[in-house]
């Protein structure tokens, strides 16, 4: 399985970004897709996951601002991030696996999100 993430960038505080991650290869076998964030000096932390059936699991992130969704026909997962704050900065990674709440074995490259105040 290969994961290709995109959509990061520089945005002003209060702005929005939508991250996308497309899976290819043996993507039809993947049940869970999700997003993780890493900031310098800290462990990678789960933002959110979504199953093929639409069940979601969120990490310790503001659900009112972060929404995960998925298009199974495109094997693509999205992370809509609204009202972004400087503390949302980080390298966001796409992840894929089989069990909700567990980290899968497949990682995409990170996409940087930078929020200016």
What is this entry, summarized?
Helices cover 0% and strands 53% of the residues. It has strands at 2-6, 9-12, 17-24, 32-38, 45-51, 56-58, 66-71, 76-81, 90-97, 106-107, 111-116.
Features:
117 residues; mainly beta; 7-stranded mixed β-sheet; 4-stranded antiparallel β-sheet
Helix content: under 10%
Radius of gyration: 13 Å
Count of alpha and pi helical runs: 0
Query: Major sheet: size, sense and barrel closure?
Result: 7 strands, mixed
The shape, in one word, is: globular
What structural class results from the helix and strand content?
Answer: mainly beta
The separation of the N and C termini measures 37 Å
Mean pLDDT: 96
What share of the residues does DSSP label as strand, in percent? over 45%
List how many beta strands DSSP finds: 11
Strand/helix succession: EEEEEEEEEEE
Model regions low in confidence, pLDDT < 50 over at least 5 residues: none
Describe this structure as you would to a colleague.
- 31% of the residues are buried.
- The protein is an all-beta fold and 117 residues long.
- 0% of the residues lie in helices and 53% in strands.
- Strands 2, 4, 5, 6, 9, 10 and 11 form a seven-stranded mixed β-sheet that branches. A four-stranded antiparallel β-sheet has the order 1-3-8-7, with no helix packed on it.
